[in-house]
Amino acid sequence: MTDSVQLNDRILLVTGAGSGLGETVSKACAAAGATVVLLGRKVPKLEKVYDDIIAAGGAEPAIYPLDLGGASPEDFFDLAKVLEENFGRLDGLVHNAADLGELTPLELHTPGDWMKTWQINVHSPLFLTQACLPLLRNSDNGSIIFTEHQCDDAYWGAYGESKAAVHHLIDSFTRELDGVPRVNGLHPGPLQSPMRTQTHPGDNIKDYPEMSTIMPAYLSLLSADSDVNGQHIDAQSA
To answer: Is 33 exposed, middle or buried (0-12, 13-18, 19+ CB in 10 A)?
Structure first.
């Protein structure tokens, strides 16, 4: 994989685009020539990413504010309708938004936090994928990426359980869609990311790679030239 991958004329939707890894993915895709639809909850953050992309000379992005924690299946079909009206297709969908929730023993987990985490981490990606599949099939080589996290240890709570469900969701979509579009999971590993500072507050964040170092893995899977499908990929060793 190489950072020279070009995404010219590709239309991509990135969730969680307002900060962290989603912001980095969005900027990398725009720098590679893609038109990126920035989906996130907070408009000011999305606007800043928009401005940064324009200032860097990237392709002009679009902004679509949506709170995944409260979104209904109808909201995702409304989004797909807007994308169809404006672009006619979707070449890539990057599921990056995630809710960490409570890192706590399962016996102490509160129902409200559990349901919110599953809504953002599992239900929203499922329903968003359903809504966008016709648009992805309009692409010459559509690609779906789920950002994974292998956390099968104790005390990861709803986050850990929901990420295990995402792993299975990737496998199920792969078998059912048969490569149209392609579906893959990317595991970023420990990075200098906002989430890492939350999950490992005692660590020296500078000991980890910068988020930009794994962008070639995302760009490669989103490329029109890629044929990778059904894989769970360690982004740091890709």
So the answer is: middle
